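Below is a typical protein record.
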Amino acid sequence: MGALEALPQGLQPGILEVQPQGLQPVCRGALEVQPQGLQPVWPFRDPRSQGSNPFLGRANPRGLQPSPYPVTSSDDGRGVRLVGGSRCSGRVEVLHGKTWSTVCDAGFDQQDAEVVCRELGCGLPVEVLGAAAFGRGKGQVWSEELHCRGNESQIHFCPTSSSLKHNCSHDSEVGLVCAGRIKLVGGSHCSGRVEVLHGETWSTVCDADFDQQDAEVVCRELGCGLPVEVLGAATFDRGKGQMWSEELQCRGNESQIYFCPTSSSLKHNCTHDSDVRLVCTGVRLVGGSRCSGRVEVLHGKTWSTVCDAGFDQQDAEVVCRELGCGLPVEVLGAAAFGRGKGQVWSEELHCRGNESQIHFCPSSSLKHNCTHDSEVGLVCAGRIKLIGGSHCSGRVEVLHGETWSTVCDANFDQQDPEVVCRELGCGLPVEVLGAAAFGRGKGQMWSEELQCRGNESQIYFCPTSSSPRHNCTHDSDVRLVCTGVRLVGGSRCSGRVEVLHGETWSTVCDADFDQQDAEVVCRELGCGLPVEVLGAAALGRGEGQVWSEELHCRGNESQIHFCPTSSSLNHNCSHDSDVGLVCAGRIKLVGGSRCSGRVEVLHRETWYTVCDVDFDQQDAEVVCRELGCGLPVEVLGAAALGRGKGQMWSEELHCRGNKSQIHFCPTSSSLKPNCSHDSDVGLLVCSGKRDININ
């Protein structure tokens, strides 16, 4: 193989690698000219384009038009292309004679992928995807299996085996993502830090002067729809190595950034602290946070909401993956994140769950009965989550690489929780608790210390110090409660209802506060189902404003700020009408009143009775305190308040008496073999200044 510089009339110099007789010549660099009889390689540059770019040739000989996909082909009918994605990602198809055939995912490996990416001028492979992740093709499935060594320049130099794969169908077609000349790093294929390939080196891009037009071209080149957000200040972590010295000046209609004019003036003040980050996708979550909200899809230039009918776990996995938000946590119907505007999408998704983007999922036609009241919402794990409570309360865990790690309570201060609550779409922080208040985590502890300023939209925008805390164990896991609603004057799960409006807490009028409203408040606080709604300031008169809105929750919302409201002011509402609420929490007393009865605890979604063996005064004090029922008067065993049903709790409490909830108490996990419902503990009576008995 040698190098021949070809200079057809009117063309700029380029490098042409000449293959042995009868084989396809390979163009390197960006000279977009093929010898007579060969198909031009996509992409093409319009010779009338203005601006300077040293990577590109200038001519389109004989008026040839580019293929709609990146493609190589030769006179003897051999070639390869990627279909259904972008220039460097898509379903693998090979040309045999005059027919394009898809390729079976069985046996297609890293070496095969390297050759395909190399042949298309797309850098190294990023991901090999099976099961028709880029959509099902048409026509034939190729009967050959590739056995590339990885160093070939084209796949038709690779050995093949000719045994037909009888069980291979279009559901088993292989897809491939190559690095291309641009990539987004640190998020997903469609979101992350922008990096460009210059020669053989990846360089980050400065956020100075990176504008909407540049973003549109990057998203288009990656096959990722329109840009949703452009962020600077190294929001997807700081890059390494070189920074690109060019400034893009795209017009916004180019198919690739290397067709954009550039200015070569080096930005002397640009560092990796200024790496630009881009989110571009055909799906978004609205009304919550970056990783939770109402699902909306981009169709043409219009965003449409999605019907909750038939939207399932597989659809949710693809949406979360496309947004770089981990795995789905919850799928919510009935407009749980608020009603959208405009069109409801007429299609129903049928994702298999392994697709990289939803526009690769099959779909079926119009749902005539779908309205904005039936829009689907989705909560993805994101890069931070709260575990052991609700979406807005629990043990703080962060995603580092592919591993969830707990966070040490040392130096987790007011600014850090403000950012966590904001990222989760959960209002302001209400309480920060250490000492593994929502249970001890497992696995790794995060070795970084957050140093948020409090105004960041996500914790990954916060500075960190990398010195590990050697004395931090899971006994020091930090726990956070952040929400737009709270219960005051009782316990964590009972009290006067107050809502956050702006930065002001307001009490809520008892007029028309009903069971559905109560269910949403209890759910948001991670407190189970409502036990009792109390009017007339039964849990104390509040101070400040009385909220002027009236809630109209349907009962399935995850947070009250997703509930519809009416804005008519209740003129006769005063603090004498403040509403109070008792939620079940994680403990309840059954068979007597709210403050007396058989002790039952909630573990996951099941209520368990508690054995009377070793249930002592300290345990009783914590139960009464958690229920807002004062001090214990009497502890009775032997099922004095009736035998329970179902399972018995296998743990033994070891409270010290000063805890605010029993789930902060140490436990021993040894099962009590002699415990039956005849030994259910009864607690009679908790009595004190907050003993509210309305039975």
Observations:
- The CA atoms of residues 608 and 646 lie 7 Å apart.
- The radius of gyration is 31 Å.
- Residues 110-119 form the longest helix (10 residues).
